């Protein structure tokens, strides 16, 4: 376990997400993956199938984050240009990688699939990159520098994340506590801000949900420092208990997530 | 109907999305909204509740897109800093807006809600901005320049999008056609790339789905030019029919979306 903050950026590549045709699920998967590894996901960008757009996003995020993940655009068709863009971003060539070719050809041999030029596109890997092998697809992703290039198909993306997890260094574990309040954000805003002002090592978020019968506001506290987290949570709980008492609100006792 | 291309960028603001605690739905809503209005959504960025991060994303996108939309961070709590960041990005002050205050106070009067400093934060609007009034919440969003600042709560966000729709100029309508192919991307990659090379006014995308029994690849063609679109679609259909015939595949006749 490291004591430093480890950060990540995610670049989601694909016109189909931006047009609304496909609903992305890789963002939520990656967010949870990072949280589980105590990596702080700092920024996500969704860009179109455009070489310059991909290069700009990857270069911006790889300069400021410990890790960058990309999803999408590594298949065999003409609109799969992620490998080309990454090679260009790093200023390296993009030859057929013999290890990747061997993996693909072994799979193709099993199924009697011919090795067409389009399929061989998937064996093009930037010089200096390591392959990201996965259990679902024979087509590998790759890692170059701090950038991890992965598939857009969710099942394959998840298999690739699991494959790279042991190679990533996690940060200090962030713990969180949630205090549910059956009042609107306006009712807690001022006193919550006052508590936040005394705890700069605890990040307090306020997330309202409009239910069908009443509003709920979930107050989420997050910190590396468990002792300070418990102190701040106790203060927030006192505040919420007071607000509930003022309005004669008694919440059910089941656990909240 | 305009003949030019109208573009948009979306900035989603919120630590809760990046931590995986909340699954975003506003991206898909905005993508569909833009497609319906013939606006091309060019890029999406998800940033944390951090003033500099918000300013950087908004300034980058407002310089290159016809419209920018933001969601999140306009509530009454200390972590709602979007209005502050937008005012800073435009170099203007952020006073209490009397029209916004009147709207909020009218709602508060109905419910006997006191006008606390936290609640009044929601009436702070950058100088020069117009309010975005909506049917669900009394707290308005606002438009300044080409930037539309909206709520993160999905129901309110959707009401605000509906409220601004009549004020937006749409682009030339893009039509799309989908040709389903019961083969993998590798089988269509080369001939599809050849067709694409002869139609630079038609954008052809290839979207594989891993089903439980067999793979499907949806070939989606998009263009402003309906005649060229139909020509390219007919060529892709001939290609897919040939691939299906080679493998004795007969797809069911129900319509695909």
TrEMBL record, chains A, B:
Q: Cross-referenced InterPro entries, in alphabetical order?
A: CinA, FLAD1_M, MoaB/Mog-like_dom_sf, MoaB/Mog_dom
Query: Which positions fall inside the MoaB/Mog domain?
Result: 9-171
This chain belongs to the protein called Molybdopterin-binding protein
Short name of one Pfam family for this protein?
A: MoCF_biosynth
List, alphabetically, the Gene3D superfamilies matched: MoaB/Mog-like domain (3.40.980.10)
Q: Which organism is it from?
A: Pelagibacterium flavum
Coiled coil located at which positions?
none
